[in-house]
Amino acid sequence: MKKPAPAIGLVIRYDFLWSHERDKGYQEGAKERPCVIVTAIVRKETGDTEVLVAPITHSPPQEGTVAIEIPSKVGRHLGLDDERSYIIANEANSVSWDDPGIVPAVPGKQWAYGFVPKGLYDQLRATMLDLAAKRKIKAADRKG
Fold first, then answer.
1. Where are the alpha helices (DSSP H) in 48-138?
2. pTM (predicted TM-score)
3. Of 7, 46, 68, 82, which has the highest C-beta tally within 10 A?
4. Using CA atoms, how far apart are residues 19 and 116, in angstroms rounded to an integer?
């Protein structure tokens, strides 16, 4: 089973570090979860690839959280369970594609869940660009 090249819209499994965990001094996320790759950048000087990921959760959005609900049809396509799921647009982790916290979606069977549809990705990207312009994304740099 070969790890795929990172691509925007690909849903991977990663030990996402929430801002409230980081604020408590944690260096790693409490659990692995599906995350959407928002950007993938290859650093020419080193050849390393960095990705920016947004988390997927079942938790309904709380006040101050910017979330995009994943349509149930998309959730089924990705192999997620039947519970409502949300992409959290105002939380992100920046990480090396070689990070050991990126693990197979289904151990021994598949690396990734699949891709979110272009329209959903475009909505996520536009939302995050707007939030970034307002400095309202809680991002953790986990590359080093």
1. 72-78, 118-133
2. 0.94
3. 68
4. 24
Find residue 85's DSSP bridge partners.
70
* 107 dihedral zone (left: phi>0; alpha: psi -120 to 50; beta): beta
- Contact present, 75 and 56 (Cβ < 8 Å): no
β-bridge pairing 85-88 and 67-70: antiparallel
Residues 26 and 57 sit within 8 Å (Cβ to Cβ):
no
Cβ-proximal residues to 124 (8 Å cutoff; 6+ apart), any chain: 36, 38, 54, 68, 87, 89, 116
HEC string of 40-69? EEECCCCCCEEEEEEEEECCCCCCCCCEEE
Structure confidence at residue 43 (pLDDT): 80
Cα distance between residue 74 and residue 71, in whole Å: 5
The pLDDT profile of the chain, 144 residues, written as one tens digit per residue, is 889 999 999 999 999 999 999 999 998 899 999 999 999 998 878 878 999 999 999 999 999 999 999 999 999 999 999 999 999 999 999 999 999 999 999 999 999 999 999 999 999 999 999 999 999 999 998 876
